[in-house]
Amino acid sequence: MRNVETTPTLPQPGAHLSLQVEGMTCASCVARVERALNKLHGVQEASVNFATEEARVVFDPQQVAPEALVKAIEDAGYHATLPQAAEIEQADFGIRGMTCASCAGRVERALRKVPGVQEATVNLADEHASVTFAPGSVSPAQLEAAVKDAGYEALHIPSAAPAEALTHHEEAKAADLLRLRNRLLVAGALTLPVFLVSMVPALQFPGFQYLLLALTAPVQFWAGGPFMRSAYQAVKHGSANMDVLVSLGTLAAFGFSLYQTFFVAGHGHYYYETAAVIITLILLGKYLEARAKGTASAAIKRLMGMTPKTARLVKDGVESDIPVERIQVGDQLLVRPGERVPTDGVIARGHSSLDESMLTGESLPVQKGEGDAVIGATLNKTGAFVMTARQVGADTALSQIIRLVQEAQGGKAPIQRLVDKVSAVFVPIVVGIALFTFLGWFFWGAPGDWAAALTASVAVLVIACPCAMGLATPMAIMVGTGKGAEHGLLIKGGEVLERARDLTTVVFDKTGTLTVGKPALTDVLLAPGQEAPALVRLAASAERGSEHPLGEAIVRGAQDRGILLAEVSGFEAIAGGGIQAVIEGKSVLIGTKRLLEARGIDVGSLASEAERLEGEAKTAVYVAIEGKLAGVLAVADALKPHAREAVEGLKRQGLSVVMITGDNRRTAEAIARGAGIERVLAEVLPQDKAKEVKRLQGEGQTVGMVGDGINDAPALAQADVGIALGTGTDVAMEASDLTLVSGDVRGVASAIGLSRATLANIRQNLFWAFFYNVIGIPVAALGFLNPMLAAGAMGFSSLFVVGNALRLRRFGR
Question: From the candidates 126, 243, 344, 509, which is the catalytic residue?
């Protein structure tokens, strides 16, 4: 993908995207594609290169999605493709200095202005930014410089060592919190006498205004200095934030008092206490808010803190302690009882029980022996073992989980778009209201009364704060996704939470999802003239080349019976039907009843017995030798222990549940009955699962698909919410929106419940944030609110939002 340059004619900064366009044959085609793109609301510029078949688009991602760009091109009669993951890069940054939603928006705009940047999202709650850009088009240093030019500080978090960079970012935030506390203590100590002298006439003495000035000046310009510096940077860059409101309000009160002190001595009205108390209360609110926000990210901090610092390397019979950063793939590591596993790997010698609850949410220890996989940072409970390192550093399961949780917490829910639009114009509107309030009071409300006009306008400036609006969505998502991680639920972001809330139907794959996924050979039905050992030997020999769970069950059944397998001279897999092979000169066909009948083989002699077995939730596998039915092998896959409980949990939430499988209908319905599922989609070929999900969506259903295999990936991608089991394949997890690390299907109901709780929390926060300003600003403008009370109310609004979001930590208790 090529770098996309911004142009000075753009009305506002936008995201940059390059699309490959197929089907253009001349210059008229180019013009047609450009017109189609430029017609879209939110597209700022679109140019198409006929030679490279590439469309370059600058657009506002809040108004138009990349998918809409593709659709516009396809509606014009051409084919377009979005860039693949390999064609874009992502960089993460910790951002310092933000105080409100306007700050987050300013950082986003600054990053999007950088040529090559395709998207930038900034999370006010955890002070984190994620930027996607064309490879080689921009460096992290350039992005850091863009943030610095906007008046903030950025710290790049390299993907190779995220834990170290994040620790550094957390340390910087801790230092900021300490400085904020010191400012608060000094401001409080100076503000108390200012307030008492101003409010208690008995404490006033000739020239007391000079004492008030001496005590208030450090509060205004030292304790409140960060507000004024931030306000200056905002105005300098043509925008406004909360600090502009605070600075205008307090400087107005301080400046008016200063004028009264030196030019109306002895007869003036002083508002030193107003300026001092406002700054002190805002500092108190910011300090409490910062501490609460630190609590909100506790889940990911706990994950980061679980990685052991050292590992015991075993080399040539000698043991030595090494830092975990020096572990290499293939190293032999000793893990003793009570220690955490240093990295991902496989047990080479020994056995033990491990507590994997920090990743899976499952409290019961898991027994492990030679050849079993172990996960880094899990706790070894009993025996000692030697393991072989398989994944290290950023490739470990814990590192990937931390990355997924961070990405989820940094993302935005669609509901946030309204907040972003309001925040972009909120502060200028408030400044206008404050100015109108001052003029209204001075000329009409209390003609000529500077004090009344100033009090009302300062109250408007101080009470109006976009902090609560900016924190409403990201705080809830941050706590919700963190709580999900504690329960072994990896949620890919706010958009997934919003879609999961709206689900009406959940579709479960059968094998490995509702069932254990390790079927066993249970029955052998023979055609006349056949012998069981010979039939099992031929079937197992043929299935040895198959990766299907049923084939593996037949092979294990032969091995358990002590049957030696034969060599296969020809093998062919038949998609969705079975296999055929040549063994010892004999043609063997294994598969479904439908497959054999399609090949003209009569299965009537064993059909009724096979149907009986299928009614017992067993799968009938038909075997034909040399074109004639030889027998039927019955394979059973037991339901997972909690499958029925999982289904009942979903039904209690008002969801309909469907099971989809390639099994024959009789077997599928028997298994579904055991799980409490009424609707079954049986005999569905792997490639048709996505079509069945699409058909359900066509019926007006919002569909969640639960699966674990490679053949589930298309259906997971097609579903409104794809839910993969962490015990399944990487492909399935990559295609999904949500991953159940433990593989416990009860987590589906928990995930949907968590999404609903999180979205409800966001709505509560947004209602409060908007309600607070809708009520507070008019009350202040009418003169019913003292500026000091306004400052307290402003701080309370942010604390309310943060505190309400923290209630999500009680989910599941």
Answer: 509
First-last CA distance in the chain? 48
- Sheet hosting strand 43-49, strand order edge to edge: 43-49, 54-59, 15-22, 79-81
Distance, CA of 784 to chain centre = 43
Helix (H/G/I), strand (E/B), else coil: 311: strand
- Asked if residue 183 lies in contact with residue 283, where contact means CB atoms within 8 angstroms, the answer is yes
Bridge-based pairing of strands 656-660 and 505-509 is: parallel
| pLDDT at residue 13, rounded to an integer | 44
For 636, residues 6+ apart whose C-beta sits below 8 A from its C-beta are 519, 520, 522, 616, 617, 618, 619
Q: Whole-angstrom Cα distance, residue 464 to residue 68?
A: 36
d(CA 629, CA 626): 9
**Cα 383 versus chain centre, distance:** 36
* Rounded Cα gap, residues 645 and 136, in angstroms: 51
Give me the amino acid identity at 134: A
Sheet holding 586-591, edge to edge: 520-526, 628-636, 618-625, 586-591, 578-583, 568-574
Tokens (6 digits) for 75? 């509606």
User: Nearest 5°: phi and psi at 187?
Assistant: -60, -40
List pLDDT tens digits, range 543-573. 886 767 788 889 989 988 899 898 888 788 8
Angle of the 272-296 helix axis to the 467-486 helix axis, nearest 10: 20
Report how far Cα 254 is from the mean position of its chain's Cα atoms. 45
Copy the structure tokens of residue 441.
Answer: 């009071």
Is 509 noted as a catalytic residue in this protein? yes
**Which residues on adjacent β-strands are paired with residue 96?**
153
DSSP 3-state of 24: coil
pLDDT tens-digit readout, 266-284: 556 788 988 899 899 889 8
Task: State how far the Cα of 804 lies from the Cα of 798, in Å rounded to an integer.
Answer: 10
Cβ burial, residue 25 (10 Å; 0-12/13-18/19+): exposed
pLDDT band at 507 (very low <50, low <70, confident <90, very high): very high
CA distance 548 to 662: 12
Q: What is the amino acid identity at position 522? A: T
DSSP summary character for residue 215: H
Angle among Cα 577, 580, 582 to the nearest 5 degrees reads 175
Partners of 311 in the beta sheet? 322
E-assigned strands of 137-265?
153-157
**Are the C-beta atoms of 693 and 699 separated by less than 8 Å?**
no
Q: How far apart are CA 707 and CA 513, in angstroms?
A: 6
Helix-strand-coil split of the chain, %, nearest 5: 50, 20, 30
